[in-house]
Amino acid sequence: TTVVVASKNAGKVREIAVMFDKLGVAVKSLADFPELPSVQETGATFEENARLKADGYAQALELPVLADDSGLQVDALDGMPGVFSARYAGKGHNDAANNAKLISELSEVPADQRHAHFVSVLALARPGKPDEDLVVRGQVDGMIVGIPQGDNGFGYDPYFYLPAFGKTMAQMTPDEKNQVSHRGDALRKLEARWDGWFKG
Ligand code: ITT
């Protein structure tokens, strides 16, 4: 069995590959198909975008494809940046610029009112059968801090603080992050339904 993890985000691919390793599933990434045109993320929800990517690439590659659409939702910002998380500071994905924009948008919001969550929606698709996609959603709650801490992970991780653990997502080891993260949560839900989907 081979599944193509259809993501250009190296941080995501790394986290997803760990689970497929455990399942004994071979993983390819978009780096293995450099000629492939990008699927546009025109959806209004994580679910729509995850399915657009999974269905689009499964069709083009004629292989099973897993896509992740994810992002940060901040309560005090009415759920922004949400599906715009990768391009919050403008076109062209730039973590440093996105983080700077997040902190500037929150400058007037007191520390105890900076509740946020990360969401990850995973969609698994087979060529030619878009109505049979397996779609799962994972979430983790935290607070946005003004001073970044930690060097692990990617994206907004240094600013995403988990009160129950007393550290940011970027201060966790890959293993710890996987145990608490939105993506880990979604991957466990996917794992639970994997056999049925693959044989079905
Ligand atoms: P692909 O579409 O190619 O998978 P992308 O990075 O553009 O890559 P998204 O559109 O789903 O993916 O945007 C997700 C963004 O949300 C990502 O770029 C980060 O800024 C943020 N994000 C998602 N998961 C995260 C995590 O575990 N830690 C930190 N930031 C995360």
Could you explain the architecture of this structure?
The protein is α/β, with parallel strands linked by helices and 200 residues long. The chain has a single domain, classed as Maf protein (Alpha-Beta Complex), CATH 3.90.950.10. It contains 5 helices and 7 strands; from the N terminus they run E-H-E-H-E-H-E-E-E-E-H-H. It has helices at residues 10-23, 46-61, 95-105, 174-180, 182-199; strands spanning 2-5, 26-29, 65-74, 115-125, 134-144, 160-162, 167-168. The longest helix is centred in the C-terminal third of the chain and has 18 residues, at 182-199. The two termini are 14 Å apart. The site of inosine 5'-triphosphate (ITT) has 22 residues, from strand 3. Inosine 5'-triphosphate binds at residues 7-9, 12, 41, 68-72, 85-86, 93, 98, 118, 153-157, 181, 183.
Core attributes:
200 residues; alpha/beta; Maf protein; seven-stranded mixed sheet; 5 helices; globular; binds inosine 5'-triphosphate
Q: Cα distance, first to last residue?
A: 14 Å
Shape summary = globular
Biggest sheet record: 7 strands, mixed
Counted beta strands: 7
Mean pLDDT: 95
CATH topology: Maf protein
Tell me which CATH architecture applies here. Alpha-Beta Complex
Order of helices and strands: EHEHEHEEEEHH
Radius of gyration: 17 Å
Number of domains: 1
Q: Which CATH first-tier class would you pick?
A: Alpha Beta
Count of discrete alpha- or pi-helical segments spanning 4 or more residues: 5
Small molecules bound: inosine 5'-triphosphate
Beta strand %: 15-25%
Helix content: 25-40%
Summing up helix and strand content along with how strands pair, one would put the structural category as: alpha/beta
* Low-confidence sequence ranges: none
Q: What spatial order of strands do you see in the largest sheet? A: 2-1-3-4-5-6-7
Query: Oligomeric form of this entry?
Result: single chain
